[in-house]
Amino acid sequence: MKKEFPMTMLSLAFPARLAPLAAALVLAGCMGAPLAPQPEHAGVAVPAAFSAAATEGAPAWTTAPPAEAQPRGAWWLGFQDPVLSDLVERAGQANTSVQEAAARLAEARALLRSADAERAPQVRANAGVSRQAGVTTTNGTQPATLATAGLGVSYELDLFGRLARASDAARLDAQARAALLQSTRLMVQADVAQTYLQLRALQAERALVDESLEAYRGTLYLTQRRYQAGDVAELDVARVQTEVAATESEALALERQQAQLRHALAVLVGDVATGFSLPPAAVEAALPVIPPGVPSTVLARRPDVSAAQAAVLAAQARVGVAQAAWFPALALTGSAGFASPELGDLFKWSARSWGIGMLLSLPLFDGGQRAAQEEGARARLEGALAAHRGQVLTAFREVEDQLSALRLLADQAQAQDRAVQSAARATQLSDSRYRNGLVSQLELLDARRSELRNRRQALQVRTAQYVATVGLVRALGGGWDTTS
């Protein structure tokens, strides 16, 4: 510390044999600021590359510079769906989880201002009237009413950094809340995108089932005509009727799932589920490619990891606050005003009064309270370190999960497309052969069931690609601006 007057004051006020102790106490207030926890300190080895991205034959991912403060960007615009963009914007304004996180951030910032205010001089006005005995007045010593009015000033000399560390802890709490707000906003955006894309996929699947249902109904009409003509048995009619009823049931199941997703989407955008609806999709949403960068960028950009790191630093600062409780507290006080036993003489110059003082306090015995508080602060620090390590591990797992899913889903989509083409060709050939009486009705129904199943499977794979893409954006802490 550069200031030397506290050392001089303490050496004059205490015996010489206590000077070393006083010096040690002053130097204890110069402890350094808390250090940010690094992944390797938390027992997490940062890999050089993601394993899924390093697989042979996988596309080359763009490496982006790490920047926690880098704007996450409107990543949802990559899906090129105006309805999705509108829903995400609405959720950012009206979602209750975002509003709750914003309120907690405002509270943390207010607590920071309160902690900073404790480091400033405290000025207060005071006035009072009291009845006292033995007051000397112009009429002698007698009971009198004593009136006082004045100003009081107090200021605590933060020799050992207790107030500074409390302010640092509050500041770090506010940073953590800001990161959690950003994390909540990203989570809500991802939930809106995934829910919306799943809903659109169910609508497409419902249209596919309706198309198959119309084909089954046409087959049923044709089969009934042939049954009436005596060309087929009643068993053929029963088979087609079964397919029609089963397909109608599947259509109703899809409608039920759509209703649930629509209601969930209404809650996400802060709307009432009753009467909530979406305009029809003009075009199919695009499937953007999200570059994951390198593992270290994930730790730098994910807001939840940043929040966990700020929580560690805040807990570390509060350990310093608990340690500073062992050292003396030195406060300067001053007051100035008027005091008079006669209310009419209160503000006369002769009634003026003033005083200055210095208060040094050091608890000698507190029943182990300070030791317990320091132990609790250290325990909270250990818990914050464990939470930070867990958040880092979770970040790596989530990115690896989505990268693996996207890579495998791309291969699955290609295989499923081949299956759809083959199934459609088989249905076409079976229908022609059935109309010419070369195959049985059972073979035609099997071909149509296979085609419907494969088409629906292709839609589900496509939906999984959408969901995994949004999941990768969320795992990366937002979208990259690849144009910069």
Overview in brief:
The protein is α+β, with helices and mostly antiparallel strands and 484 residues long. The chain is built from 10 helices and 4 strands; from the N terminus they run ααααββααααββαα.
Explain what the structure shows.
There is one protein chain. The protein has helices spanning 5-13, 19-28, 82-94, 96-117, 162-228, 234-268, 295-301, 303-324, 369-435, 441-475, and strands at residues 122-137, 140-157, 329-340, 352-361. It is of the alpha+beta class. The protein has 2 domains: 39-119 and 161-326 and 371-475, Outer membrane efflux proteins (OEP); 120-157 and 328-361, Single Sheet (Outer membrane efflux proteins (OEP)). A hairpin with a 2-residue loop joins strand 1 and strand 2. Helix 5 (162-228) runs antiparallel to helix 10 (441-475) and helix 9 (369-435) runs antiparallel to helix 10 (441-475). The protein starts with a helix and ends in a 9-residue tail after the last helix.
Key words describing this protein structure:
alpha+beta; Outer membrane efflux proteins (OEP); 4-stranded antiparallel beta sheet
- Count of all domains: 2
CATH topology name of the largest domain: Outer membrane efflux proteins (OEP)
Query: So what's the overall shape?
Result: elongated
**CATH A-level architecture of the largest domain:** Up-down Bundle
Strand content: 5-15%
Strand order of the largest sheet: 1-2-3-4
Distance between the termini: 45 Å
The CATH class assignment of the largest domain is: Mainly Alpha
Mean pLDDT: 77
Q: Counting H and I runs of at least 4 residues, what is the number of helices?
A: 10
How would you classify the quaternary structure?
single chain
CATH 4th-level superfamily of the largest domain: Outer membrane efflux proteins (OEP)
- Rg, please? 37 Å
Unreliable spans: 1-33, 54-71
Q: How many strand segments? A: 4
Biggest sheet features = 4 strands, antiparallel
